[in-house]
Amino acid sequence: MNNSMEISDNSLEYQRASWNALRKSINGLVNKVTAANIRNIVPELFAENLIRGRGLFCRTCLKSQLASPGFTDVFAALVSVVNAKFPQVGYLLLRRIVLQLQRAYKRNDKTQLVAAVKFIAHLLNQRIVDELIGLELLTLLLEKPTDDSVEVAVGFVAECGSLLQDLCPKGMNGVLERLRGILYEGDIDKHVQFLIEGLFALRKAAKFQIMRPELDLVEQDDQFTHQVSLLDEIDGESGLDVFQPDPQFVENEKMYEDLKKQILPEDEDDEDQIADSVDSNEEEDEEQIKDETGTDLVNLRRTIYLTIKSSLDFEEAGHKLLKIDISGMEKELCVMLLECCGEETTYSRYYGLLGQRLCLMNRIHQESFEKCFADQYSMIHQEVETVKLRNVAKLFAHLLAMDALHWRILDCIQLTEEETTSSSRIFLKIFFHELSGHLGIWLLNQRLSQDSFESIFPKDNPKNTRFAINFFTSIGLGGITENLREYLKNMQNEGKQKKRKTNV
Predict the structure, then answer these.
(1) Mean pLDDT by 10 residues, the chain (504 residues)
(2) What is the DSSP letter of 264?
(3) Model pTM?
(4) CA distance 197 to 175
(5) Residue 53, pLDDT score
(6) Cα–Cα distance list, 231 to 88, 116, 155 (Å)
(7) What's the CA gap between 118 and 134, in Å, rounded?
(8) Cβ-Cβ contacts under 8 Å for 86 (sequence gap 6 or more)
């Protein structure tokens, strides 16, 4: 059946079949978009009737972002391109996100709230929404601060603080002063205080997250920025998500066909016109070459991610993952496992058991995890999300307690005041608590004493020795510092004896 015959069919059965096909197509395209293939996905998406399917598109974006928050910036970039051509679609999505945020805030649903706030941050970075909503959101979260609300606010500033600082520096300075006041008042949990300290460290080092260049797809002149308030009464238009007969189906389909011809080039040789118009043809060719060289890696990561997320248990996941050809890129498997674990709202033992299975099955995976531990700890000061710190710390503690990794990986930890940060101290607190839970304080002390970890129990300087003793005592693990306390006591006695001899 040709296109003209299809469009002339106005029957209820055909409309329903068309709707189901539209739903499946939009779901498939949104769920497979990545930073590497987004330029190829956009033309396919515009080929579908996004006016009729705007509710489907918005619903799929919200569901996919909630399931994969690590891809939020990619979904925001996709919405940015659609919004430039069909602002009504971007406006609908924005209103639904605000509605999700309002409901989550009232119900105290942290998972939904974090997802909505993260999406708004990246829509701000893409200039889909006015910056005033960012200040409004921060005011709401910090007006009556709780541990959760401050943690969410800190995450939001880390995501889009660079843009807010540029667009409304006075408002941003007010928010930072409010956070500083909350920190000085000391009415919040220690880990949240550490988060605020980490945020100020990021600001001082000018390391707020910024939009990735490959996701900057819309020229500033083509951007359409919406204004929405958190106080608005939002109509999410949920009726757009379900099939409804259209008396003017044929006319509306033909109308979209005309719009599609204006957006999409008819000649296949002109497909590069969909790319960013500011790039020259030569620059587009270079970008395509770069995308192609990274395609294998992106596809591998996506395969690993989907395998981990879709498996029923760790044994099934391990069996499937070991079948994947990852020669030379074994570390990517470990990195993706850590990413998936870090995305969870609470730690799942599934990841620890899966990592343990991989390490015991192949020495290469064991070595990869050991390298990942050193890499994670070296960059821990850049992490402001406590949930991710907790999950990753518990995962590595499980692997170490089960002897899936060598204990010498702890050599990278320098437990001194100068060498640790608020983030690393949170990580170490959770890490050693989890080890103690697995092994017990006696066995943990035995394992640490057996290998003589002088980087964790420093004896080079009394100041460092006291710091290590005070750290473990403050987190309730003072029992593993008995040898260190004895050493410090003997060192002090020797110092007193020398002093007496000198006086004599």
Answers:
(1) 48 87 91 89 91 93 90 93 92 93 91 93 92 91 90 90 85 89 85 86 73 85 86 87 88 87 62 43 41 59 84 86 82 89 89 92 88 88 78 93 90 88 89 90 82 79 87 88 82 66 57
(2) S
(3) 0.55
(4) 14
(5) 92
(6) 20, 15, 22
(7) 11
(8) 50, 51, 54
| Per-residue model confidence (pLDDT) at position 49 | 92
On the CB side of 11, CA atoms within 13 Å amount to 6
Three-class secondary structure of residue 201 per DSSP: helix
Contact between 50 and 20 under an 8 Å Cβ cutoff? The reply is no
Nearest to 45 by CA among 211, 217, 274, 306: 274
Whether 5 and 253 have beta carbons less than 8 Å apart is answered as no
pLDDT of residue 285: 39
Residue owning tokens 């590069």: 272
Residue 101 identity:
L
pLDDT of residue 356: 92
One-letter identity of residue 444:
L
Nearest one of 21, 23, 117 to 66, comparing CA atoms:
117
Q: Which pLDDT score is estimated for 463?
A: 86
Cα 75–chain centre separation? 13
Structure tokens at 163: 């843009």
Distance of alpha carbon 186 from alpha carbon 192, whole angstroms: 10
Distance CA 219, CA 82 (A): 13
3-state helix, strand, coil in the chain (%, to 5): 75, 0, 25
Q: Which residues partner with 129 through β-bridges?
A: 226
Residues 107 and 227: their CA atoms lie apart, in Å, by 25
At 311, list the tokens: 């498996």
CA nearest to 309, candidates 346, 349, 347, 337: 337
Task: Say if residues 372 and 382 touch (Cβ distance below 8 Å).
Answer: no
Task: Evaluate the CA torsion angle 93, 98, 104, 110 in order and state its sign.
Answer: positive
DSSP state of 36: T
Q: Enter the tokens of residue 69.
A: 């928050």
Structure tokens at 454: 């002088």
Q: Rounded to whole angstroms, how far apart are CA atoms 369 and 365?
A: 6
Instruction: Count the neighbouring beta carbons within 10 Å of the beta carbon of residue 307.
Output: 20
